[in-house]
């Protein structure tokens, strides 16, 4: 006997173009990559399909499996993936997210790549780690031109092939970084891994790494000590003659989120490597890589916010309570609009930083000075905002959002990661303090950017308060988070006034700068243009 029919439930958000995002598309045109809009839109359409969304689910529900030995007992240190992982990787590589700006370095190429990374991260975040690391490895590798000449074309080739083979026999390569040790964490100068020079110019590397992600990569950028200090090395998992290098995967980490991405503890047992840059200058080399992955952390967080609020708005258009759709109820509209304001501010900052990165790469010194400070500020703040944003977006679903099938728990588990990796909050805050102390011109560049918003009273007042704080930082480290938060907010406000939707800009300034809000999402004041804000995030076709 049929006891009930299913009604008043939402439907999966399939067929939605993930790139249907005015902040993203307007940013592409403004930051010099209008030529990529069609490609980004095509990728967004693909990302929204049922098949691709299913790849994301399967890659997470079937995490990688470490295979340290083959069935005969030979050490192989291999990793087995669900086919969905390879589908995601193939698409990311084919679309140049791992290296197109290096093989086609025209103006706007890094902006286009950032937009694609934003769109594709919406599907699944774990596989974007090797994509990000491969992209970021090239500037570090260029510290040794003869290595770059061999490997850069392979690191930027748009062909993906999983498995282990000689790096010179594969059509394309992936890279990762290997820095963190048990005793040091972010303090990489405390590393004990040791590298010894051999007569042929190679080095033998011995030591452990406590946390290395994307351990299926072909090439590892490893930090190790020499007599001159911390040095960077290129360590292939398979040598040119096809023999396995002595890179031992001890165990995979059981992580809160990012479960499709194989992070491992590694032992280097006399592994063969080649020096990148000068001995003792490993930190400056690897920082070139870290800064680029920090930008990707910010991009990934902005993408996660957009996914969360879009999914929540979609649910609210289909679900009724107390006689009307959730999206038509004032309190839910306040929550969704507040989440949208946060998301758009993050996305707008992401696109501005991507543009600065693009122009800095092409030699623009002014943009380089701005980026030096603004990236650390933005990475700190946007990544900090994502966990609370993900939690509120999940709550919009009620109990349905707490169920794994909704995919909101996966998004929530992912949300703390970007604030922890590539420099946790305190590391990012200290980096801001160092930048301001070593390069005061970065402060001028930062406030010069903010000033482009013109005579907006709330921004001018906040800037005045900030400048007063910066001239009297007796307790600089104690107050660093407060100051950096305010810096992020005035920068986002400036960008919204210049380039954002007026309703979003007004709501952001009233709540984030003027303080007319509560301590949680959904506390926007009366008078906000909720309809204009929600129109920017609600999927079409209600």
From TrEMBL:
Cofactors named for this entry: FAD
Species this chain originates from: Rhodococcus tukisamuensis
Span of domain Acyl-CoA oxidase/dehydrogenase middle: 177-270
PROSITE patterns linked: ACYL_COA_DH_2
Residues of the Acyl-CoA dehydrogenase/oxidase C-terminal domain: 280-436
Any one Gene Ontology molecular-function term assigned to this protein's record: acyl-CoA dehydrogenase activity
InterPro entries: Acyl-CoA_dehydrogenase-like, Acyl-CoA_DH_CS, Acyl-CoA_Oxase/DH_mid-dom, AcylCo_DH-like_C, AcylCo_DH/oxidase_C, AcylCoA_DH/oxidase_NM_dom_sf, AidB_N
Protein name: Putative acyl-CoA dehydrogenase
Pfam families per record: Acyl-CoA_dh_1, Acyl-CoA_dh_M, AidB_N
Keywords of this entry: FAD, Flavoprotein, Oxidoreductase
């Amino acid at each position: 006997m049929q006891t009930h029919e299913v009604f008043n439930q939402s439907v999966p958000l399939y067929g939605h173009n993930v790139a249907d995002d005015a902040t993203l598309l307007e940013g592409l045109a403004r930051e010099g990559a209008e030529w990529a809009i069609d490609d980004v839109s095509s990728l967004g359409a693909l990302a929204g399909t049922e098949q691709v969304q299913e790849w994301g689910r399967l890659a997470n529900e079937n995490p990688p499996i470490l295979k340290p030995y083959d069935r005969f007992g030979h050490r192989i240190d291999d990793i087995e993936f669900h086919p969905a992982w390879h589908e995601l990787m193939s698409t990311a590589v084919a679309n140049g997210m791992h290296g197109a700006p290096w093989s086609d370095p025209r103006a706007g190429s890094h902006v286009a790549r950032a937009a694609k990374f934003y769109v594709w991260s919406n599907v699944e975040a774990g596989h974007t780690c090797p994509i990000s690391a491969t992209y970021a490895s090239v500037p570090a590798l260029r510290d040794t031109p003869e290595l770059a000449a061999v490997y850069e074309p392979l690191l930027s080739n748009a062909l993906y092939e999983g498995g282990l083979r000689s790096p010179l026999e594969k059509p394309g390569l992936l890279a990762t970084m290997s820095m963190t040790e048990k005793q040091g964490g972010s303090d990489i100068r405390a590393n004990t891994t040791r590298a010894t020079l051999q007569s042929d110019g190679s080095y033998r590397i011995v030591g452990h790494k406590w946390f290395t992600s994307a351990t299926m990569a072909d090439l590892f950028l490893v930090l190790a000590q020499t007599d001159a200090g911390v040095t960077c090395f290129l360590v292939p998992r398979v040598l040119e003659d096809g023999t396995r290098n002595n890179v031992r995967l001890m165990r995979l980490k059981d992580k809160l989120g990012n479960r499709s991405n194989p992070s491992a503890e590694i032992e280097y047992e006399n592994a063969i490597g080649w020096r990148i840059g000068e001995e003792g200058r490993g930190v400056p080399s690897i920082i070139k890589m870290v800064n680029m992955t920090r930008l990707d952390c910010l991009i990934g967080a902005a993408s996660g916010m957009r996914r969360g609020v879009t999914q929540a708005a979609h649910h609210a258009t289909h679900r009724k309570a107390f006689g009307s759709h959730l999206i038509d109820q004032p309190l839910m509209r306040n929550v969704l609009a507040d989440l949208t304001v946060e998301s758009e501010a993050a996305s707008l900052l992401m696109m501005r930083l991507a543009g600065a990165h693009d122009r800095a790469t092409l030699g623009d010194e002014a943009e380089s000075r701005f980026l030096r400070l603004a990236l650390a500020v933005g990475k700190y703040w946007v990544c900090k905002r994502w966990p609370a944003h993900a939690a509120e977006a999940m709550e919009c679903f009620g109990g349905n959002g707490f169920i794994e099938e909704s995919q909101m728990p996966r998004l929530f588990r992912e949300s703390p990661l970007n604030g922890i990796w590539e420099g946790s909050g305190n590391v990012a805050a200290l980096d801001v303090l160092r930048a301001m102390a070593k390069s005061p011109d970065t402060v001028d560049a930062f406030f010069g950017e903010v000033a482009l918003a013109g005579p907006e009273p709330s921004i001018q007042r906040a800037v005045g308060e900030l400048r007063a704080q910066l001239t009297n930082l007796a307790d600089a480290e104690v107050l660093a988070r407060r100051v950096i938060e305010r810096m992020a907010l005035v920068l986002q406000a400036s960008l919204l006034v210049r380039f954002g939707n007026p309703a979003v800009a007004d709501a952001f300034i009233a709540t984030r700068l003027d303080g007319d809000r509560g301590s949680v999402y959904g506390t926007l004041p009366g008078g906000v243009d909720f309809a204009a804000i929600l129109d920017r995030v609600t999927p079409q076709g209600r």
